[in-house]
């Protein structure tokens, strides 16, 4: 039986940051489930960089069904966790069911991959204190406030926590996450 990986997300998550790890991990042979506040079709977004803009722009992205509601997740059934970015983490960090899930993964020292604004979720449970991370560069002060040492790098590995800045860093992010994952939860 293949090890299970959980992706936690919601509406307004960045399309590439959900679907790239979803497909890449399935390609490796992992069983991947997407959990959200409710079982429903999620509306993702596309964040892109336009000349002359001081920040990214947002456009409608793909839709995708959530396999599970957060309240249905048994963290003990999953070997690892993926936390995409986009705007979803801004409101998801307030969800008590999701915070329980996140805490379970960190307490068990299971592999966690986070990208872009995803670290807002791990910060909400105190999971970044004393850790080295990267995130979308605009979150540098948020990461420091959460007790992390922020590094502006393609990917940062701190034990079982693997973080990246944004979707342009996908290849390095998944390469390093798979290295951690293969050691901790190899495909059987």
Query: Residue share in helices?
Result: 25-40%
The largest sheet is: 7 strands, mixed
Sheet with the most strands: spatial strand order: 5-2-1-6-7-11-10
Give me the Rg, rounded: 15 Å
Order of helices and strands: EHEEEEEHHEHEHEEEH
**N- to C-terminal separation?**
6 Å
Number of helices: 6
Quaternary organization: single chain
pLDDT < 50 runs, ≥5 residues:
none
How much of the sequence is in beta strands? 25-35%
Q: Count of DSSP E strands?
A: 11
Using the alpha-carbon principal axes, give the shape.
globular
Structural class: alpha/beta
What is the average per-residue confidence, as pLDDT, rounded to a whole number? 97
């Amino acid at each position: 039986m293949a090890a299970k990986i959980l992706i936690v997300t919601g509406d307004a998550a960045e399309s590439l940051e959900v679907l790239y790890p979803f497909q890449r991990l399935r390609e490796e042979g992992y069983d991947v489930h997407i959990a959200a506040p409710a079982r429903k079709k999620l509306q993702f977004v596309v964040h892109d960089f336009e000349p002359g803009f001081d920040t990214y722009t947002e456009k409608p992205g793909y839709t995708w069904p959530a396999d599970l509601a957060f309240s249905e997740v048994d963290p003990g059934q999953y070997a690892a966790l993926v936390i995409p970015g986009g705007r979803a983490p801004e409101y998801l960090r307030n969800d008590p069911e999701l915070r329980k899930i996140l805490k379970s993964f960190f307490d068990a020292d299971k592999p966690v991959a986070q990208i872009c604004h995803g670290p807002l979720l791990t910060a909400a449970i105190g999971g970044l204190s004393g850790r080295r991370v990267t995130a979308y560069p605009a979150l540098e002060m948020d990461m420091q406030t959460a007790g992390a040492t922020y590094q502006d790098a393609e990917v940062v590995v701190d034990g079982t926590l693997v973080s990246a800045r944004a979707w342009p860093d996908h290849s390095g992010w998944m390469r390093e996450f798979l290295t951690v994952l293969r050691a901790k939860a190899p495909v059987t």
